[in-house]
Design a protein that fits this description.
Pfam families: SBP_bac_8. By secondary structure, the protein is of the alpha+beta class. It has 18 helices and twelve strands. The longest helix has 16 residues.
Length: 427
């Protein structure tokens, strides 16, 4: 705080030796915040604005955002900095990184921090907390969270004789719709019926299918996987059949980053992607579009996804206080609603959806509530010890199946064998 002492010239002349010493303003405590930029949109502008607003309301603290690239890049840079003695104090990293961060002894449990109360921790959607808690503690605070949803081109539906307001409701109907939506000129496909990305996060998109097949990929302790369950192979076979049998989906590997562009350019009539792309699609789709829950197999469902806030052990007492204040600041109902409206990510608390701003937004744009409404059917995203190695084993075998190099059953058996080798020592 700046303190200005006003002294008359007369008083100064009368008591020159008693003049008060200057009082210097105390510099605010700096808190480094590592943040991933992986989805298109005005993310840096929003985060910068939140940091500036927080500093105005909390002048003892200054948040310094560091934009570190993709989630993977951010995790790598964060852990490298930590090992070099220069870790951030708070970071937004994938919720599934929870076991990796615990193994590295990198983070603090939020329950153990001053200023954290149980009602706040229990105020988030339960579906998001499945990837936020382990060993009886809360390690991550939901912030940039999502589910997978279906986007469809309503004009393409009309042209194909389909109801433009109704997406496919089942696996069989999804194939039927995709067949009607696929456009061919000889051997050349000008519009695919559906695209499900298989690069970037193939395991996550695949979990949409395994959830619908009514099977979970891992246990809650993160030390066992079930990739060789027959229902998992069934889910992969369905994905493979979209291109290899029904020819309604591009063959090979479909890029995560270019799938929205393919949708905008009418190269695909339906796509699966994160609800975090909702604002991007709303701003850039040159046609009316719909957003719906994923088609059901034995059951409906999607994995949750996205990032949590973690506090690092590198934070001193003042920085920990500031980190708690900042996390609470970001997750107030009003700010969570603003974040959801501006980005398309799911506002992380029921209270956020009760704010006037969010109520008005959903009334004007009902698609904004689809991911929230899917949460009761959602499951935790794949998360295990040594998560990157385990997901790589699964991703490699998923792509082998989609490229036609392996059959579904053997591919998942191979993925399970590698995961078992990695995880055995954690049991």
């Amino acid at each position: 705080m700046n303190i200005t002492r006003r002294t008359t010239l007369g008083a100064m002349a009368a008591t020159p030796l008693l003049a008060a010493p200057a009082v210097h303003a105390q510099a605010p405590t700096e808190i480094v915040f590592n943040y991933p930029i992986a989805v298109g949109g005005p993310i840096p502008r929003l985060i910068d604005g939140y940091c500036e607003e927080f500093a105005r309301e909390n002048p003892r603290f200054r948040i310094k955002p560091i934009y570190a690239g993709s989630y993977q890049d951010t995790l790598t840079k964060t852990l490298t900095a930590m090992r070099g003695g220069d870790a951030p104090q708070i970071a937004c990293l994938l919720a599934v990184d929870i076991f990796t961060l615990i193994e590295e002894d990198a983070i603090l449990a939020w329950d153990d921090l001053a200023g954290v109360e149980k009602p706040w921790l229990d105020g988030f959607y339960p579906g998001f907390m499945e990837n936020s808690r382990a060993r009886g503690k809360t390690w991550g605070i939901p912030f940039q969270r999502s589910t997978i949803v279906t986007y469809w081109n309503k004009d393409a539906f009309r042209e194909a004789g389909l109801d433009p307001e109704t997406p496919p409701q089942s696996w069989a109907q999804q194939i039927d719709f995709a067949q009607k939506l696929t456009k061919r000129q000889g051997d050349n496909v000008t519009q695919w019926g559906i695209q499900i990305p298989s690069s970037g996060f193939p395991y996550w998109l695949f979990q949409g299918l395994t959830t619908q097949a009514d099977v979970r990929l891992m246990n809650a302790d993160g030390n066992r996987t079930f990739f060789n369950d027959p229902k998992v192979a069934e889910a992969l076979q369905y994905w493979m059949d979209l291109s290899q049998r029904h020819r309604v989906h591009p063959g090979g590997i479909v890029e995560w980053g270019t799938t929205p562009r393919d949708f905008f350019e009418r190269k695909t009539a339906m796509m699966w992607t994160t609800t975090g792309n909702l604002t991007n699609v709303r701003r850039n789709a040159p046609f009316p579009f719909g957003v719906g829950m994923l088609a059901a197999g034995r059951r409906p469902g999607s994995p949750t996804g996205g990032g949590n806030l973690y506090v690092f052990k590198s934070a001193n007492a003042a920085q920990r206080e500031g980190a708690v204040r900042f996390a609470r600041f970001l997750t107030t109902p009003e700010r969570a609603a603003h974040w959801g409206i501006e980005t398309g990510y799911v506002a992380v608390t029921p209270q956020a959806f009760e704010t006037p701003a969010m109520r008005a937004y959903v009334a004007d744009f009902p698609a904004a509530a689809v991911a929230r409404d899917q949460l009761p059917h959602a499951v935790a995203e794949l998360s295990t010890h040594e998560n990157q190695r385990v997901t790589k084993a699964l991703n490699d075998n998923l792509q082998a199946g989609l490229l036609g190099r392996k059959q579904a059953g053997p591919a998942m058996a191979d993925a399970q064998a590698e995961a078992e080798r990695i995880l055995r020592r954690y049991r």
